[in-house]
């Protein structure tokens, strides 16, 4: 029976591996402002306006981040333009062909505007778009992987480094120890942009400030869905003397908030993508200084609007401080006293006086 | 083993049949429990796939099957190589990086890249074998660790040497090997290197049933002590089997690389998770070449079809993972039960045929 | 016999397992105050009958009456409640507990766990001459003491019908005598003892009544005072009794195997084999006698290349094979009949023809280069099945389905194939029926005449004496004495095996 035991153990491992890892977020940047709405707009909306397809990244609706944020924009657009919509969700470890199939399914079902949430859709949109010249595609955080321009694809990118710069300013102004921290989910180029802006903002206020940098994973996308890892990383930084920690780690961020709560009074965390103060628990709220905003909902809505207006956006659109595509949150009122300072920096970035780096 | 009487075949099919019924039942219950309609789910799943889905199913089956063969090589000798995931991740990266370097051209580039994939997968896997033979580290533990190390290593190398593009990083793009287009162009191609799966399956069967090495491998799997007494060198056997398993694992993703992906990028083009699927399918197919083929086909079918769920039903595609997981667990239990029945049956048959049913159990 | 009360009466007991009728129409009457011997070959159904009497298995037919009252024994607990106790061949004792603790374990309610229990143990020990000391750790006890403790445990639980399953198998002759003295005390105190054995000398020495089993049923009873060994044996086997008898010596001058000062240590550095030196000539059978666990298994595994000796050399012919691996040794012509055929000899779930290949994977007719020669192996399996009388429906039958004797015959046939130069035979007839035993002996003797060198390890002293040209005794990993089987007695060997006589 030892045989059976060993077999069962392996079967259990396999089953866990199959079923247990649905929470990574390859975008690493959450942006929704509210949990998934209880009413599902795509089930109820039957308008004869534009039909919109929204292809989520891994995690899908209800991730309280990136995907939900896109849904908020979708919902607003569908209601406003009396349209209808169809959704699809990526599963973990799915092949390129599954993403393509999802987009094609949407186009075949009559969608005229299709949005892929997350840069993982870049290649699949590039492959699918030429087959559907009448359909308009958009990719959040996306890019064109080849040199052949696509006439019907919009790439919606965010100057996340600029939003991060502002919360870096806030952290530097608020720190009492002269030491702050950063926790990234995965050490990839996207998150490095967050780090770069944050560090630059902090140094602009206090050139001698010490910034601790930690990443939960070097390359494993699990780093975006690992609250325990986020907590461990943040606790390490608090222990070393930081009193404010900014995270760009998707769903792992809740662990960073918990670390701030446990570190006690005077220790703060900074949220990312959405105004995370609004979705945090009561205990966490007292420790969320601010959040760097990345308005995926705005980008989604704007794109749909251009399609509805008959002038679909194509090529690259950057969402930055200038068009309020990124920013910072003031919920909780913890940074009201330094708001004018932050806005001063914001004005300088908008005017081009300050150039925010994109790489650390 | 070689008796083709109907009862033996019936018994052989009983295990998977029980497993499939159990997984259908559990899936139905779960769907009903979350308030969705199991009827919608099953009618969507049983809907005949679209042409492009059929192409995808073939391609996916090939990769899952290769992974299952890799797992089965270890399983057949009682080695649990959980590290397929890390082995093929590292091997895929190495092969893609080499191919992207374009040191060779055309067919030679593809062929040498495949060799590199095999070599890297084998070497990575052999580490676990060496740890087991020299330090007594369970291969289950070491391969899980090596999975983490592999993915971290690949991420590091990719960041350092890869092509940074948009928010992603990947290896240099390569020219694809054109495949076979059974339907329209837009429905995709069946990749040329799908042939790897066929070769892996046939090779596995020949190795196992026709060679001395295969005999030693099976003997080691059935009883380590018997194999040792028969002259099998257990240390060498463990390292060889691990390396072989890892070498085949190295090939898992190669069809996709040369058929579609053009580059290796974590979270983008690279399809993670095939290693774990392979382990599950090896269990499902009882490490038999034909059994695993059906298992791989079933899993590929479920995965590909799950994409349709969001259009026709409100069931999450993730439910398919429950179906797959339950199928594997159920098959392990069902097979053990059937194995015991079969053993008893055989004893009875022997006693009947000899007509001397008087010997007591010793 | 006199008017004594009947302790146990079994009538028409039958028990069927899938594919096997283990017992049928078994009748057995055990009188109180006697030692009743139940004899029969391995596989005759003795073990099953005992298990039925001890409540481990439920009979399909028949009745059990204890002290005149019909009872249903569903579990061992029922059996104990009815005064039936059993001492198994493999002791069930906790080494790290004391005699007292082992005794009261599971029977705490009877006499508590303190002084009352201690007093009871002393009473039992004194009454039957067990010499048990309640506070000694069991790991310090020898085999004989452990057996006495097991018997005492049964008595402590109130048994008056005591089943002993081959109690002498683990004992040397002197210890057997002591055991018999204890059993006589038990008998004199009015207990009934059921003594299971297949050693006829012992049975005749101790039993008051004898019941013989063969092929699952009781075939007769005998009076130990009037019957002879030969008559008993014929009752057991139903035919003439075979016995191994060496013919004229075929020992040649050519040395086939030489061990010189071979030493083997375990992982803790303790010596399992110390300075073992021996040589076997072509045509010679060298027997190794010893109480089990004195290094026999290690010796065999060292010669077979499954363990690497720490010191000394091993030569096969003139070749130094000390560091050769098992496969190379087998290719050089060593046949190996392992002690435990399930652990070392057979792939139970593989068909017979694949088991024919086992151990000879690289040799004709099983292999051609790196390929398995399926038809060659199958054909040769047919030959073995025919020549060695392996009773199986076909060569595709899994080995598991065969009886122990047939499994062993397959192994012997396999290891004799391909003209080996040396045969390592560990307990070659253990657990096989009489017919198979005689056949195996014949095969070994025939090969010896053809010039085969044989290392024979056996727990059966008759077998050793009957087959060997020379006998060496192994004790605690050393060879401690050499004997000539023509003149040695089991008593001499027994003394050497327990260290009573140094050589």
Automatic annotation (TrEMBL), chain A:
Principal location: membrane
Against PROSITE patterns, the record matches this protein to: PROKAR_LIPOPROTEIN (PS51257)
Q: Which CDD domains match?
A: PBP1_PrnA-like
Provide the ABC transporter substrate-binding protein PnrA-like domain boundaries.
57-358
**Coiled coil regions in record:** none
The annotated topology with respect to the bilayer is: Lipid-anchor
* Domain of life (superkingdom): Bacteria
Where does the record locate the signal sequence feature?
A: 1-19
UniProt keyword terms in alphabetical order: Cell membrane, Lipoprotein, Membrane, Signal
Q: Where are the transmembrane segments?
A: none
Location relative to the cell: Cell membrane
Family membership noted in the UniProt record: Belongs to the BMP lipoprotein family.
The protein here is known as: BMP family ABC transporter substrate-binding protein
Taxonomic lineage: Bacteria, Bacillati, Actinomycetota, Actinomycetes, Propionibacteriales
UniProtKB/TrEMBL annotation, chain B:
UniProt membrane topology term: Multi-pass membrane protein
* Annotated localization: Cell membrane
Q: For this UniProt record, give its keywords in alphabetical order, as a comma-separated list.
A: Cell membrane, Membrane, Transmembrane, Transmembrane helix
Query: Superkingdom of this entry's organism?
Result: Bacteria
Question: What are the transmembrane regions?
Answer: 12-37, 57-75, 87-104, 110-131, 140-158, 190-208, 238-258, 264-283, 290-306, 318-338
- Asked if the record carries the keyword Transmembrane, the reply is yes
Entry keyword annotation includes Cell membrane? yes
Q: Name one Pfam family in it.
A: BPD_transp_2
Q: Main site of residence?
A: membrane
Q: Which GO terms describe its molecular function?
A: transmembrane transporter activity
In terms of InterPro entries, this protein maps to: ABC_transp_permease
Name a single GO cellular component. plasma membrane
User: What is the protein's name according to its record?
Assistant: ABC transporter permease
TrEMBL record, chain C:
Q: Which PANTHER family does the protein's record reference?
A: CARBOHYDRATE TRANSPORT ATP-BINDING PROTEIN MG119-RELATED (PTHR43790), GALACTOFURANOSE TRANSPORTER ATP-BINDING PROTEIN YTFR (PTHR43790:SF9)
Please tell me where this protein is predominantly located: membrane
Listed GO MF terms? ATP binding; ATP hydrolysis activity
Can you say where in the cell this protein is located?
Cell membrane
For this UniProt record, give its keywords in alphabetical order, as a comma-separated list: ATP-binding, Cell membrane, Membrane, Nucleotide-binding, Repeat, Translocase, Transport
Which CDD domains does the entry mention?
ABC_Carb_Monos_I, ABC_Carb_Monos_II
Q: What is the designated name of this protein?
A: ABC transporter ATP-binding protein
Repeat in keyword set: yes
Pull one GO CC term from this UniProt entry. Answer: plasma membrane
Keyword check for Disulfide bond: no
TM annotation in the entry:
none
| Highest taxon above the source species | Bacteria
Provide the species name. Aeromicrobium ginsengisoli
* Annotated membrane topology: Peripheral membrane protein
Q: Where is the ABC transporter domain?
A: 8-240, 257-501
